[in-house]
Design goal:
303 residues; 8-stranded mixed β-sheet; OB fold (Dihydrolipoamide Acetyltransferase, E2P); RADX protein; single chain; 2 domains; 5-stranded mixed barrel; mainly beta
Length: 303
């Protein structure tokens, strides 16, 4: 059928009601959001954001309500979608934006694609990777992997991706989303090493929409975290990484077929791991317990 592209949509969306089908690749994926309230009677008040791209640039796509449980887990970073009967709306101004791996890519920020179960009922098709043709001009997923030796030079709130061998994972803890609120964030601390520094990555991992991964992080697994934010803890200048709304976490058993397996820094890490003694690394691993961070000063006077 006749296809359109994101650049053409941005120029013509106000003058149209129906749009030609779109062929796009998912570059980023947000956590699943529940927006239900007791006074509003909605069956499935869910929402998820994706950043999708074709040869013309990148745009936000929103998956709404009952389409979320049906499609959210099938729509992975790297997945190619054929979309028909979708809606176009002005962008929600307060949503978070991931940092694209390709800084040259054009971003269409004024509008977003809405996938709904009705008005109109969207038609979604997943195109298997082996059927994707080069002439479609779809961009590849690109990452911003850093090594531990590079971390200390990065500015506060910088976005990056990391891979490392888990040496410590703490118990799951809770923090209130707001003071006096009944809602909590669930998170855990982890350390991961990559052989480029004596220091580990200190990772604050909030529960994303991947409970099967979050609950099974353990020492000696290869851990990949994408779209992490650099946090500098003053006055100690301790640097750690925290998850963002678009972070994805992967452990052993989940790496196969992921786009990051082609990244040069990921390959370098695998080579380094193959040169290590597993028995030596196991001796350095720790699991569970309370992890006070940032650490209090070692004397009351300094405190």
């Amino acid at each position: 059928s006749k296809l359109t592209n994101l650049g053409h949509l941005e120029m013509t969306w106000r003058s149209r009601v129906h749009f030609h089908p779109l062929l796009v690749r998912i570059l980023h994926k947000s956590r699943l959001k529940y927006y239900g309230k007791p006074e509003k009677k909605m069956d499935m008040p869910y929402q998820a954001y994706f950043e999708v791209a074709d040869g013309s640039g990148m745009m936000s796509m929103v998956l709404w309500n009952s389409l979320c449980p049906e499609w959210y887990h099938s729509m992975k970073v790297g997945t190619v979608l054929l979309l028909a009967k979708y809606a176009i709306k002005s962008s929600y101004p307060f949503k978070t934006h991931p940092t694209p791996g390709d800084s040259q890519m054009k971003r269409f920020a004024t509008i977003e694609i809405c996938l709904n179960v009705r008005d109109p009922p969207t038609e979604i098709s997943i195109i298997p990777e082996e059927m994707v043709k080069p002439e479609w001009g779809l961009p590849e997923v690109k990452y911003r992997f850093i090594t531990r030796s590079e971390l200390d030079d990065l500015p506060h709130n910088h976005s990056c991706d990391v891979i490392g061998l888990v040496t410590f994972v703490g118990r799951a803890e809770r923090a209130r989303k707001r003071e006096h609120s009944e809602d909590f964030w669930l998170y855990r601390w982890a350390h991961a090493i990559d052989g480029t520094s004596e220091q580990p990555f200190i990772l604050e991992l909030f529960a994303t929409s991947q409970p099967d991964v979050f609950e099974h992080i353990h020492p000696m697994t290869y851990l990949v975290c994408t779209q992490m934010r650099v946090m500098t803890e003053n006055p100690s200048r301790t640097v750690y990484l925290t998850t963002s709304n678009e972070s994805q976490i992967f452990i052993k058993g989940w790496h196969k077929g992921q786009p990051y397996t082609k990244d040069a820094k990921v390959k370098n890490f695998i080579q380094w791991m193959e040169s290590q003694s597993e028995a030596d690394q196991i001796k350095k691993t720790v699991i569970g317990g309370y992890y006070p961070f940032p650490r209090p000063p070692d004397s009351f006077l300094k405190y």
